[in-house]
Amino acid sequence: MMDDCNNEETGGIGFLPREKVESIKSTLQQGRLEETMSIIRKMIEDIDNAVLNIALTGESGAGKSTFINAFRGVGHEDENAASTGVVETTTNVTSYEHPEFPNVKLWDLPGIGTRNFQPESYLKQVSFSRYDFFLIISSSRFRVNDVKLAQKIRGMGKKFYFVRTKVDIDLYNEKKSKPKTFKEENVLQKIKKNCLQHLQDIGIEEPQVYLISSFELESFDFPKLKDDFAKELPEHKRHVFFLCLPNISNNIIDQKKAVIQQRIWLEALKAGAWAIVPFVGVIKGEDIALLEKYLTNYQRIFGVDDATLCKISKTLKKSSEEVKALLKSPHLLTIKKHKNISEKFLKFAEVFCSVNGGLLAAPLYFRKSYYTQLYCLETVANDAKILLSKLCSSV
Ligand code: GDP
Q1: pLDDT in tens, 261-307
Q2: Residues with CB under 6 A from ligand 1
Q3: I want to staple 305 with a disulfide (CB 3.0 to 4.6 A). Which of 46, 175, 246, 299 is the partner?
Q4: Are residues 117 and 11 in the same domain?
């Protein structure tokens, strides 16, 4: 699995450039370690320095702020909810940082004027070149100006996506008005067909429209939208893209886990922490301190940290202690005897190796820090899935 850039958990989306992984393999096998290290260092640097800028445009009321908040996993009433972003006074563009990953920013662009609209000057005004992709948001029909803008964006070699919001309202209304004949699939199909037809009529070839509800991001077309984004991004940007997604589905949790696994793998290779004998040894006090660091970081990324658990416990109408009792990661390092932890990790390492085979198809094993990190990751990701299922069943 770690050897494969396109593993199943990620829906075939690769995170490490295949040719780079091939170079690592061949330089390692030929014993050119200096070269291997330099490839790995560069890959890690690229991943860590990746910056992602997502632009949203659409008329006022279309649902831009709501989407920005949902995407960042920020509640509407939270302190850093959209509408309190940083406004660039010269351009009237507002940016919203991701709370955990400040390299990821969503930009709320000013609405497009109706009269004498010039896409070129608009794009210049909003500093077009800084965005990785554009979302053109509408809660009704896309307007001629949206299309002009999309054409210009395409002409400049950037990607745009038409996003039709608030489909939950359409479904609700249809169900109320036609309870006997209502079929969700048919309603969604009709909305999409309408949008596509309209876009074609005003000149967009082979348009693609994503239907979403920002109140139910896990439903409708958001899962496809995020995978389509990811595929279009260069591999080194996919890491941070997946990490910053809200923990709203098992699929996203698996994708996050996969990108972190690959990052751990690179780090382990970089540290030269591999050996020709399988993992042995007992977890000691100093290992525990390091593990605590990993664990805390993963818990934040997967929403299993204390602050998030506190919020979740309110939603579930349980105490924080009751919620923690459902999970493993909060108790992972409180086990008194480190020997017990060692045994757990050893077992995990054995299973991991037997399932995944030798890394790089070579008889190479990693030392315990590699497996202990993976074990923490696995435990936290499983906890995230438990929380998700509890939250879903409480609705
Ligand atoms: P903006 O002006 O484009 O930023 O629009 P807002 O995000 O402020 O949304 C305008 C209104 O539409 C608000 O009352 C939102 O709660 C509501 N809204 C936005 N997106 C959705 C959605 O997907 N579903 C529903 N039901 N309401 C939405």
Answers
A1: 888 888 877 776 554 444 445 556 667 777 888 999 999 999 999 99
A2: 58, 60-66, 165-166, 168-169, 213-215
A3: 299
A4: no
